[in-house]
Amino acid sequence: MQREQAGVQLPEGAWWDWEVLAWNAGQFRLAAGNDLTYHHGLELVFSDPAFVSCPVMFHGPVFRVATSQELVRVVRQLGEEPPVLVAFEADAGGRAPVSCLIAAERFEVVHETVLRYWRDDATPGQRFASWVRPPVKPRE
After folding, report:
1. Residues 6+ apart with CB under 8 A from 65
2. Which residues of the chain fall below pLDDT 50?
């Protein structure tokens, strides 16, 4: 199986703040934006993640090709080379950047506005984060 290890290509935008949105057996999903308070505009979706070494929140990742040592580490854990292996350095609030590594079956970049709170005036092309629900209207 051919492994995708090229650097991640992000669309133009201010992708400073990052956080984990979902992490389960079927999906590891990262959200990014300039300020994650009200919305985010980018998601990296890793389908069927097999290995994840990444903080829950971080800033300014610099994506790169995984080193041979990182590949050996992942192969030792999984028993084989993963189809997707993404590596990056990021600011996680410590004295030095943290090295991150994600191995998965598939990888997708989703570029769209995702609102993190309810808005009645949401426009086409915007979607709500999975936890956002419309306000409950009182019964008369």
Report:
1. 5, 6, 7, 87
2. 1-5
2 lies in some domain: no
Which domain covers residue 114, as residue numbers?
A: 17-128
Nearest to 33 by CA among 58, 53, 7: 58
Per-residue model confidence as pLDDT tens digits over 2-38: 334 456 788 888 899 999 999 999 999 999 999 888 8
Residue 26 lies in a domain: yes
Record the pTM. Answer: 0.84
